[in-house]
Amino acid sequence: MSKENKIDTVFNRLRTENKTAFIPFISIGDPDIETSLEIAKTLIKNGADMIELGFPFSDPMADGKVIQRSYERALKNKVSMEDAFSFVKKLKAYRDIPVILFTYYNPVFILGERFAKGAQSAGIDGILVVDLPPEESGELTKYIQGKNIYQIYLLAPTTGNERIKQVLSHAKGFVYYVSVTGVTGVRKSLPETIKSKVKEIKEISSIPVGVGFGISSKEQAKDIGKCADAVIIGSKIIQFIEDNINDKPTIIQRIAEFSSGIKSNL
Amino acid sequence: MKLPNKKGHFGEYGGRYISETLMPAVIELEEFYKKIRSDKKFIKEFNYYLKNYVGRPSPLYFAKRLSDIYKSDIYLKREDLNHTGAHKINNTIGQALLAVKMGKKRIIAETGAGQHGVATATVCALFDLECEVFMGKKDIERQKQNVFRMELLGAKVNPVESGSQTLKDAMNEALRDWITNIKTTYYMIGTVAGPHPYPLIVRDFQSVIGKEVLKQLKKLPDILIACVGGGSNAIGLFYPFLKYDKVKMYGVEAGGCGIETGMHAASISGGTPGVLHGNKTYLLQDEFGRIVNAHSIAAGLDYPGIGPEHSYFADKKRIIFDSVTDEEAVSAFQKLCRLEGIIPALESSHAIAYLEKIKKEIKGKTVVINLSGRGDKDMHTISEYLSSNTDAKLSKL
């Protein structure tokens, strides 16, 4: 099987166009499954090159308040992994852009092999497990082997040069650089170190670098886009849901405007 | 075989399931600890504070009246007599010394009942460290006195309003703070859980309990009993005895309203393996791998997980895990008050309650129970429980 992973396809295309990928993040099931599917389609229609879908977890230790509350809303809708798979199928039927499932390890671990099979048949292209460093990835690597699913790894401002090399030796698709020392959430200003760190990563590997955590404005996206291959935005988009929780048309409208605004700056 | 192995695994349990931001800090801690662990000066300093500040060795008390009832020799390891009233201080003294040596000035900790929070606030005062404790909003309401104690000691107590507003959420919030302030901050975990090397560090500092028992008893006991939430007092007692095959060990989990009701905190008796708070271990979770809320009358046992080393020895059947209910614990609490003049913590009362479950087995045997803490903090809970459960009002002696 030599089918190319769609994540590679998109990065290769954007590279020739000299463009940066826009990867929005939303949680599956927030505010409800149907609306979150609408939101995902809206993002795709308005410039998303790939999409990151968060699987709601009871104990999101790496997430700030906005995503915590998003997961809490989604958990009330009792979203199962099966629901997540069928969500991805529907989204892929709408448009087949790369889908990255963002999750904590426990919901994946308890399903084991069944997770990998389900993810494959749903068409998931990448999986990002926020609490699964390469050292503990053995089980998951075994499960997804031969299934054309990439495990996306993270690098952080605290990651030293030796460790960057070590993580990159496992990386496929792209590597996710966490721009701030902290949890997810909107930041007014981003650290100056992002550019030098991205440069450091790029000197070691030719793998695309996506930057996320804290990015919320066109200006920030444009600036990060100068050095990164992808800009990842989550909390800012989810804030539109929270602020207009009883007004779905407004949620869709605000997210559409925001999304196309970001994309036009990349 | 040495446990944990180099990667921090106890068989399939343990490990380091944490976000990348934390990995370098945890590796740094591991390397630092590896060096200092056998450093004579460090051990001497640790022992100095255990003796002069904590008041160790704690007595191994022969409980005569209790022994008469069960026709066995029952000894209580009196961790309740430690400074701050529980075994928790053994660990916080050790970790505070470690943090100081690492040059960290700010300490964070999670707490459930507030015992680890108080022990942390205490050592932070002692070693002049800035201290912030994360505590679930619900626990703050249940344990007002401990909140006040922490504040008196100079700590800042941060209420956690997310999730179930109890210990697990306090740990989530402490981890979030650590991710954010990793460069300046030392995370002082209170039990034998979390990412490697924490289960090892906390076990090392707590195993003073078992080491003292070995010296004090002057022979091997037949049976050891300890209550288990995260499992630090249990591993502290058990660890030095693991190599003696004939010593039987019972870990008593919090059965709450009964395992069958789902309202309990017994991760091994009523849970399945999973991954939470940096380690793989037995957890209380639903079919989708989401963590479910624990319940116990003892706030210090009210946690949906357990240390990975316990999970390992549970599978191996080296430590036998069982549970007692809230009701059984309260009854044992009263029994110890009346028989021995000792008011135990509700947590430790679970271990006392287990005597009743194995009364046939213990006849003629030597039993050591870890009396991990004292019950002063539980007065309010107990009086509320007794006034709402008229059946339990009369202690059955």
List keywords for this structure.
heterodimer; A: 266 residues; alpha/beta; nine-stranded parallel sheet; 12 helices; 9 strands; 48% helix; B: 397 residues; six-stranded mixed sheet; four-stranded antiparallel sheet; 14 strands
Quaternary status:
heterodimer
Radius of gyration of chain B: 19 Å
Helix count from the secondary structure assignment of chain B: 17
Numbering strands along the chain, what is their spatial order in the largest sheet of chain B? 3-4-14-9-10-13
Content-based structural category of chain A: alpha/beta
Number of strands of chain A: 9
The total count of helices of chain A amounts to 12
Biggest chain pair interface: A-B, 42 and 38 residues
Residue share in β-strands of chain A: 5-15%
Mean pLDDT, all residues of chain B:
95
Q: Which H/E pattern describes the elements of chain A?
A: HEHEHHEHHEHEEHEHEHEHH
Gyration radius of chain A, rounded:
17 Å
What amount of the residues of chain B lies in strands? 15-25%
Largest sheet of chain A: 9 strands, parallel
Secondary structure: helix percent of chain A: 40-55%
**Largest pleated sheet of chain B:** 6 strands, mixed
Can you count the beta strands of chain B?
Answer: 14
User: What's the end-to-end separation of chain A, in Å?
Assistant: 34 Å
Plain-language structure description:
The complex is a heterodimer of chains A (266) and B (397). In chain A, 48% of the residues lie in helices and 14% in strands. Chain A contains 12 helices and 9 strands. Chain B is of the alpha/beta class and 397 residues long. Chain B has helices at residues 23-36, 40-54, 64-70, 88-101, 115-126, 137-142, 144-152, 167-180, 198-206, 208-217, 232-238, 267-270, 308-315, 326-340, 346-357, 359-362, 379-388, and strands spanning 9-10, 13-17, 60-62, 73-78, 106-111, 130-136, 156-160, 185-187, 223-228, 248-254, 272-276, 278-283, 319-324, 366-371. In chain B, strand 11 and strand 12 (278-283) form a beta hairpin. Chain B is globular and about 55 Å long. Chain B starts with 8 loop residues before the first strand and ends in a 9-residue tail after the last helix. Chains A and B meet through helix 3, helix 5 and strand 6 of A and strand 2, helix 1, helix 8, strand 11 and strand 12 of B.
